[in-house]
Amino acid sequence: MIFNTISFSASLCVVFLLISGFPLKNKVCMCLLTLAMCTTLAFLALAYMHSIC
């Protein structure tokens, strides 16, 4: 449940960053989006693996 919550929160952050209109040419914004997407995918995979075992 913890992995799933972190994944959901990170994906919400990505959606809000994209909707809010941050300039995507800014390196800091792109770094934040990349970090949030990596966090989302990593914890999504961990939640999936944990549910299988």
Automatic annotation (TrEMBL):
Key words, A-Z: Membrane, Transmembrane, Transmembrane helix
Transmembrane segments: 6-24, 31-50
Protein name: NADH dehydrogenase subunit 4L
Lineage of the species this protein comes from: Eukaryota, Viridiplantae, Streptophyta, Embryophyta, Tracheophyta
